Amino acid sequence: MERKQNLRSVTGKKKRYVMIACIAVMLVLAAVLIIYAATHEKKSFHQPEMDSHAVEGTPQPDSGFLYGEVPTKYAYHFSMAANLYMQPDQSVYVYFTNASENTELLRCEITDAKSEKVLYESGVIKPGTYIEKLSPTMDLDNTARDITVKVYAYKDGSWYSAGTTTMNMKLQPW
Question: What share of the chain is helix, strand, coil (3-state, %, to 5)?
Answer without folding.
Answer: 20, 40, 40
